[in-house]
Every structure is written in structure tokens, then in C-alpha cells.
Amino acid sequence: MAEAYRDLDPETMPRSPGLTYQQLLDADSHGVPDVLRLQSPKDMGLVEYPVTRYTTATYHEKEVEHLWKKVWQMACREEEIPQPGDHHRYDIAGMSFLVVRTESGEIKAYPNACLHRGRMLKEFNGNAAELRCPFHGFCWKLDGSLNDIPADWDFPHIDRDKFSLPEIPVATWEGFIFINPDQQCAPFADFIKDLADQFQRWQPRNLFKAAHVAKVMPCNWKIAQEAFCEAYHVNGTHPQILRSLGDVNSQVDIWENCARVITPGGTTSPLLDYEVPDKELLRANMDLPHDAEVPEIPAGVNVRTYLADRARENLRPMAGQKVDEYCDAELVDSIDYTLFPNFHPWGAFNGIVYRFRPNGRDHRSSIMECMMLAPFQGERPPPAEVVWLEEDQSWSRALGFLGKVFDQDAFNMPRVQEGLETTYQTGVVLSGYQESKVRWLHHKLTEWVGE
Amino acid sequence: MASLTHPFDTDTLYELTDEGNIKLTNGNRVGIFTARGQYISGDIKQADPQLCVWVGNNPDESLQQMSDKRAATSITAKRT
Fold it and tell me: pTM score, two decimals?
């Protein structure tokens, strides 16, 4: 069992000079919801985590056995399988599962393998009246019960009533479908509780999947994931936004199964030792060239409120008058939640969702995905299909400004893998607070997988 | 054309060239780098590779994947 961590007092704990996130909230032009007033900093110790977690097939195999075969994990969105017969293939670490909408509208999940000779039942997402194996034609109904065995006189040893597809646990939360390969797993309600409590205000079930982009990254899945778990890297990796982002003002909160990093936008990094005029802050925020005109901020309006007002008006056609309930922080800050081990729904109304997975059984490559959820008026639009980027295609090609930021993170990833393969260090050094979400992930990994 | 001064070195301007390289200017000194930060020519021999990546990355908006373009403009971009 990993060593327990202890609560820190937000009033007395060591933190960056400059405003705290909570002090920034005090200047919000709207009422700040309770969920943003929560603080849960943790002292997670200062231990180093072994480099071998990223570099060895042995550790990857342990992850497969003790984590990926045991943990609740997000497979897809409910909106992706709305009709009976719709099915979604979800792969994890060399295993494949089918998530199926049955005739009754229930959602079930099965190992994606024929009970005859083991062939994968469905290679692609789609709709089918039955689950028929393309090898010899064994067939199951959508509810998993056996439907047909061609030339069944030759299988007197099969008890048809007992030859159903094995079901694995399925649960839904806010429009996401989770599965657990472990038929004896702990209840989902306990697993999701911390996260569910905090998302009651934001209700991502009412959003639709407006974009979904995936790419195989040449690094361990934890290297990719950890690039999105702290704001400390902004000064090195994303220097262009330091004038408009309070990177080291970020608030990090740790709970049992989830954690979050909130990074304020529309404020300047305390790492810059000079005053940044509002105009230059806005230029950085809007990614305008150095000689381009910058919009005027009305007198008496602070930058965060100005940016929030713009975001409100951009959202209004889709989200309606509800936007007036959103506080500035919910519109301009990065509220990045993580549910262990690999699911990252952003809080508030950003609609960004990340997922990071091992790429099959290769510990040196991973699958990084970004979904964009968006509000809508009227009938729910169809969900976007996943678009896979080729090795030489940039994230910006698919996701514009957001993708440009990813491309900077992606620029590091293979070089982190190569560096960790090379280093004489045995452990990865992490900061005490700013990188405490990464510490939490490793702490959980120790619990589930071991050292 | 994409351009900005480095927040930690405000006298140095990074600009995208017509050839897709990054031109650094600091007073009378100039340096040319690839969009991955590799030195090509000039008096300035060192650049921040991540700022070169940023300035050199100019996506074609028509290729973007939002199924609803209005959503693309409304969602606050990732900042970290």
C-alpha cells in the first residue's frame, strides 16, 4: 500500500508569490459557485518515482494485469450508441471490448471475442442486429445470449443456455460510458463519487461531442498524460502565454479518485518580473501578432471580466441565457480534472476531455485523444467521428489554437521518453505542490500496480 | 504573419518568414531558425525551440474538426 498523504492548510502552505487563485475569484463579476471555492491541497511527500515506470515492458505488463484489467475506464459517449444494435469497440492495452446498445435500450459490454475460436467479433463501430463472428458464423443476440451455431449438430458439448457472451460491468456518468474488465470490481458509484459531486453544476450530459481527435504518440502513456497534469511546464513549453496566464498561481486539489489543477487565465504569470499592460495581456491571450491592433477594454472592466464577457457572447447562441449564470472563472480559467487513471474532463463550460491510453502492448507508445463537447439548442446534433492524425500531422491541423498548444506538448513527449531511457537518475523528480497531481497519479499507481 | 516577443527576453522578436522559418531580431542582430528551433544562419545563434514551434505553427482553419464550427469559436482553448 502506498504511503498515505495528508491535508495541507491552504492558508499556511508554501505557495507562489502573487495572488492566490481564491483571491482572483474574489474579483469575479458574478457569483462564484461553491465547487470553485473548494480547496484540497495535499502533502504527498517528496519521494521520487522510478524511471522504470516509463521505460520497461515489465512495468507495463504489471499495469495491464493490475490496472487496465481491473479499473473503471471511460469507453465512449452514450450519444455514440443511441440505437439498438449500435456498438462501439473500445481497446485497452492489447484487449478489446464491445459496448452494445441492446433491443431494450440497455447498455452492455462484452469482451470482443468469439466464444468459439476467439476471433474478434466486431472490428469497427457500427450497427448490427446481432453479433455474428466473421470466422465460422457463431452468433449472439445483442443481449449476449446465444443466437445461432452453424451446423450445431457438431457441438453437442455446448450448453446453449450457458454459452452467452460474458458481461463485464458497465456504468454511465454524465453521458460517458464506463466499463470495467473485472467482473468482481468495486461499485462504480464509489469510484466516481468525488468527481460526480463536483460536476453537478456543469452537467456534461447536456453537451454533444463536437470533435474527437486521436493520435498515436511516441512515448509511454504516462508521459503524454502528465504533460496535461500541471501548469509548471508553461514557462518552458508554452512561453507565449505567460503574459496572460497565472501558471504558478494554479490551485491543485487532490481527492481520493480525482484531482484537479485550476489555472487562471487573464492574469499574468508571477514568473515575469515586469508589469504587463492589459493590451499586451490581451494580445497574448488572443495570439495576435506583435504589431496587430488589440481590442480596447472598456474603462473600469478588468481583463478577466472582459474575456469572460466575450466568451459568454460566443457561447450564447448555443447555450442560451444560461451563460449569464456562468461566473468569469468558469469561462476563462483552465479547470482540468483527472479521474484516475486516465480520464480528463475539464470542469465548467470548456468542454475539453482528454484520454490517454497505452497503444496496445507497446510501453513506448500511447494513444492521446481530445474530445470537444459543446452545448446545443434544439435537437441533439450527431456526435463527431474520431479523426486519427497521422504521425506527421500536427494537432493544430485538427484543433486550431488548442492544437497549437498540444503541438508544443507533443514536441516534448518523445524527447522525454528518450531522456528517461538515457538518464542516470533512477527516479523522476517532482515539485511538492505544483506537480502534486502527477504525484497523486503515481501514488495511485503504486496502490494499484506496485512499485 | 505570426510574431511575438519572448516573455523572458522582451528585446527579441520571433517572426515567421515566407519560407516557413523563424527570424529572430534583437536590435541589429538577426538569426534564422527552423520551426523546430534548429539554427540556420545569422548572428543570433540560440533560440527558444518552443517559441519557434509556436510561431511556425499556422493551421489551415478549413481542416479543423469541429462538427459545429460555432462550437469551435466558443470553447475557450487549453492554456496549459
Answer: 0.95
